[in-house]
Amino acid sequence: MTRLLLVPLDDAVVFPGMSVTLAVDTADEERVLLVPRHANEFAAVGTVATVSDRVRLPGGGRAVVVEGLHRGTAGAAVTEPNGRLYVDVEEHTDPVGLVANRETRELEREYRAVVEEILDLLDADSRIQSFLRGITEPGALADATGYSPDLNYEQRVELLQQVDIVERLKLALSYQRERLAELQVRKRIRDDVESGAEKQQREYFLRKQMDSIRRELGEDDASVVEEYRGRIAEADMPEAVREQAEKELGRLERVGEQSGESSVIRTYLDWLLAVPWGKRSEERLDPQHAREVLDADHAGLDDVKDRIVEYIAVKKLRQERGIVEDKRSGAILTLIGPPGTGKTSIGESIARATGREFIRIALGGVRDEAEIRGHRRTYIGALPGRLVRALRDAGTMNPVIMLDEVDKVGADWRGDPSSALLEVLDPAQNHSFRDHYLDVEVDLSGVMFIATANVADTIPGPLLDRMEVIRFDGYTTSEKVAIARGYLLPRQLERNGLREDEVHIDDEQLRTIVTEYTREAGVRNLEREIGTLLRKTATQIASGARSAPVELDLESLRDALGRQKFFQESAIRTAVPGVATGLAVTGAGGDVLFVEATTMAGTPGLTLTGQLGDVMKESAQIALSYVRGHADELHIDRGQFDEHNFHVHVPAGAIP
Q: How far apart are the C-alpha atoms of 311 and 536, rounded to whole Å?
């Protein structure tokens, strides 16, 4: 133990190897113990220092120059008669010249590498790196961390209190790693900022050059604004829409072309100007002409044709008699029927008959409400809904818009498109339809909406309530033959490269195709079968196997289409007692069902097979109850019911 004068250092730490000047009076002491102190609390370890010089300060004060030697732990304290405080000190001297072990060497190498990286980032004086290389002892190397101005008081005290050299190196290395990570982050941020600033400066100069070029060419921002102003003036916009357009144009003028918002405003103005405000197709209000066009394009469908002719006739009378057009009297026709019956194609015929433009909107699988109403402009990549886009494509405010497959509209977390269609398809509301993107009222009352669906069951009730439903029944055999002769055959002849005089097929063969090779409500499969027949005929003509004109008889038909696929078996099946006919109707058409019944001696009861649903099971039970209740009228012995079991089977009961 050595007794040394205690010199407290308030919020300061002196490491071994440091030389500092302290404004204290050490009398004639050669060595002292420098102990860090904070809020009257002393650190456990101090620095044993030698007094190398004494100086007199201006004003008569005294100061000493001390140099740190090594660490020391303070023990018992004694106050001398002169009032000075002395402590017993256990000195800890770092060994000098010893060969370091492997762990110490690795820590030393990593420490040097980290500190050199820090000095490179700070672009420090090369003399500091030379000073660092001059330190050969690992303990002194760790103490060099104390020179860093980035360490706080607590970190310095913690480093001073590490007497073990290895632990001291580990602690110093952790401090330097933190410092390196912080400097790297700062450098990355500074580089990003400088890069961004350089980019902005470069863009600024480029914009200035572009502005100068535009002014030379007379194409500055003012001309862009004036161009929009002229287009707005020429557009026949309603007053409210014009005010909105001029308001946005004013914003464009204020923010300037350099602003990122300008592209959003210009896109909005472009869409606002794309709507054909005030433009209407000149309708041909001629009921007789409309009927001729519809008859030429489609066979049958008399209900639909009558309704279209009525619509045109009423409109013609109102116009001739000067009755003001009522915006709340629009027609919303909904064609419901099986596939292939001509629902979609009749829309084009209606447009042609009335002289309007035709636009088709496919709604099958649409689940996003924004598809109908559009996106709000706050979203990136926002667009108007399909209706506004349809008006733009049509170029008029009174086109025929076909809403195809309205029964297949879905709903999920993005909204319910069928609810959005309520406003569109309500004649009392659609004169003031508001698209989310445009955010102005769009008059849809002039549009003739025609919706199509396979079944009405999946159309929401409120939506179906706004529709004028026209049912499409399946075609009869005679109607299919007429459609094949007048429409399908000419179209398939052209598609297969054949002339009308090269192939002849009579109505009897067409009837055979209808009855023996197709079973459908519409005519799509019929057209496919005719196409197959004509392709094979075209192949024979092209290869020289047959020469035109070709007469297609039953043998040619069987050779091309194969064996008969469907049989007219109703008369044969029902000729057997116990077989009756039923009718199945679905969204794809219908079919004849056969219901087979038999009775046998045994335990009384009713057996039902064929995977029947609840309704058909109830029907069978009702039938048995009816027979038993009217046994006398039907001349049936009542005792038979107690001795026999009844079995009802529907072979096609499992077919949806």
A: 45
The three-state secondary structure class of 74 is: strand
Question: What pLDDT is stored for residue 206 in this prediction?
Answer: 78
Whether the per-residue pLDDT at 216 is higher than 90: the answer is no
Structure confidence at residue 324 as a pLDDT band (50, 70, 90) = low
3-class secondary-structure state, position 236: coil
Distance between CA 516 and CA 564 in Å, rounded? 6
| Cβ-based burial of 346 (10 A; exposed 0-12, middle 13-18, buried ≥19) | buried
CATH topology of domain 477-561: Helicase, Ruva Protein; domain 3 (1.10.8)
Please state which of the four CATH numbers 3.40.50.1820, 3.30.230.10, 2.40.50.140, 3.40.50.1240 is assigned to the domain occupying 570-649.
3.30.230.10
Strands (E), 499-655: 503-504, 550-551, 579-586, 589-601, 605-609, 644-649
| pLDDT > 70 fraction of the chain, expressed in percent and rounded | 96
Query: Alpha carbon of 598 to those of 126, 352, 575, 578, 614: distances in Å?
Result: 111, 58, 14, 6, 21
- What does the pLDDT read at residue 6? 93
Nearest to 398 by CA among 442, 344, 439, 363: 442
Q: What is the mean pLDDT of the chain?
A: 86
- Going by pLDDT thresholds of 50, 70 and 90, the confidence category of residue 8 is very high
Burial label, 500 (beta-carbon count in 10 A; 0-12, 13-18, 19+): exposed
CATH 1.20.58 fits 102-186, yes or no: yes
Is it true that 102-186 and 570-649 share their CATH fold? no
293-471 CATH pick, 3.30.2040.10, 3.40.50.300, 3.30.70.890, 3.40.1390.10: 3.40.50.300
Mean pLDDT of 69-95: 90
Q: What share of the chain is helix, strand, coil (3-state, %, to 5)?
A: 45, 20, 35
Q: Please give the pLDDT value at position 330.
A: 59
The residue behind tokens 């007053």 is 239
Q: How confident is the model at residue 222 (pLDDT cuts 50, 70, 90)?
A: low
Mean pLDDT, residues 622-636: 92
Determine the Cα–Cα distance for residues 320 and 132; give it in Å rounded to an integer: 105
Evaluate whether 138 touches 165 at the Cβ level (below 8 Å): yes
Whole-angstrom distance, CA of residue 646 vs CA of residue 607: 6
The β-bridge partners of 640 are none
pLDDT value for 331 = 63
Question: Which pLDDT score is estimated for 83?
Answer: 80
Range 239-248, long-range pairs (CB < 8 A, 24+ positions)? 240/440, 240/441, 241/272, 241/277, 241/440, 241/441, 244/272, 244/439, 244/440, 245/269, 245/272, 245/273, 248/272
Q: At 395, give phi and psi (nearest 5°).
A: 80, 5
Provide the pLDDT confidence category of residue 354 given band limits of 50, 70 and 90. Answer: confident
Q: Which of 132-136, 560-564, 625-629 is predicted least confidently?
A: 132-136
Would residue 597 be called left, alpha or beta, if left means φ above 0 and alpha means ψ between -120 and 50 degrees?
A: beta
Is pLDDT of 54 > 80?
yes
Beta strands in 433-478 (DSSP E): 433-434, 441-442, 448-453, 468-471
Q: How far apart are CA 576 and CA 501, in angstroms?
A: 48
CA pair distance 61, 245, nearest whole angstrom = 83
Contact 425, 387 (CB under 8 A): no
Instruction: Please give the CATH topology (third level) of the domain spanning 2-92.
Output: 2.30.130
The domain spans of the chain are 2-92, 102-186, 221-274, 293-471, 477-561, 570-649
